[in-house]
Write a structure and sequence with these properties.
Number of helices: 13
Strand order of the largest sheet: 1-2
Number of strands: 2
Structural class: mainly alpha
Shape: globular
């Protein structure tokens, strides 16, 4: 999928802002967006109601917007969403409903809601699983919903070779390439989980390349524009901050996994500084 470079830059800026505001790891959010839509904010699914950067289906979007919209300046949307006795989210006015659903195609709104959704899912999954939730667990919660993810992960722990399509027929019908191999054979729970793990790992490699390119762009921008501003800490100069960022990226490039092992939702001061550098580069 080809994405206009300018649009991709705006998308990455929206993701970086969401990461900064919520504390959810930038790499995870960018990797998820790469998998879901190829960073195409206008992407739409052909077999479901999924739309936008993170391919939220309508009910999932209304649920997370109802819960977190007001926190991010979208109270008009959150307050317009109701819930039936059966748990279904509704909006009484059709024009308002369409406006709220259209926010899925706004990179900033989509990134903020994806980050909040990941944070909520992590807490709930860990309470059920009795262990830390990793990136693949979070992706399963996004893909199947929190209830579906709990069912999937619990079933996989008990019987990893069981057919996923048999447990999730509706999801399998909408996502045949995920639930079935090219020869038509249904994939097992563990096989699907591993495929998502591999996709996230591949996206993570791409994220590192993207981060390196953005930092290089930031460095070049500062060389060309003496008035450029970079947010730094500890009374550092912009040059000192960039030097530190380059050294940090060199460690990533050398295969150091210490930073990667950190909690997805608890960035360190160092990863926060990298996020600031990302914001500086994307803002130019």
């Amino acid at each position: 999928m080809t994405v206009n470079p300018i649009s991709a830059g705006r998308v990455q800026l929206a993701i970086a802002l969401a990461s900064s505001k919520t504390g959810v790891d930038f790499d995870y959010l960018l990797g998820q967006a790469k998998i879901e839509s190829g960073l195409n904010a206008g992407a739409r699914a052909g077999t479901s109601s999924a739309s936008g950067l993170y391919q939220f289906v309508e009910q999932s979007w209304l649920a997370v917007m109802k819960k977190h919209g007001a926190e991010h300046g979208m109270a008009w949307a959150a307050n317009s969403i109701g819930q039936t006795a059966g748990g279904r989210y509704t909006v009484s006015d059709s024009a308002t409903r369409q406006a709220i659903l259209a926010l899925r195609n706004d990179p900033t709104a989509a990134s903020l809601m994806a980050a909040e959704h990941a944070s909520d899912n992590k807490s709930e999954l860990e309470g059920t699983l009795g262990r830390s939730a990793n990136g693949t667990d979070l992706y399963m919660a996004h893909f199947l919903g929190i209830g579906g993810a709990k069912k999937f992960l619990s079933a996989m722990a008990a019987s990893p070779g069981a057919s996923a399509a048999a447990l999730f027929p509706a999801a399998a019908n909408s996502n045949r390439s995920i639930f079935y191999a090219s020869n038509g054979q249904p994939r097992s729970l563990s096989a699907i989980y591993q495929r998502f793990t591999d996709k996230l790992n591949a996206a993570s490699d791409s994220v590192s390349e993207t981060r390196a390119a953005n930092l290089a762009f930031a460095a070049q921008s500062l060389k060309m524009d003496g008035d450029a501003t970079v947010v730094t800490g500890g009374n550092e100069s912009a040059t000192d901050a960039l030097d530190w960022a380059k050294q940090a990226m060199a460690r990533f490039g050398a295969g150091n996994t210490a930073d990667a092992a950190q909690s997805l939702l608890r960035p360190t001061p160092n990863t926060a500084r990298l996020a600031y550098m990302m914001l500086a580069s994307l803002g130019n």
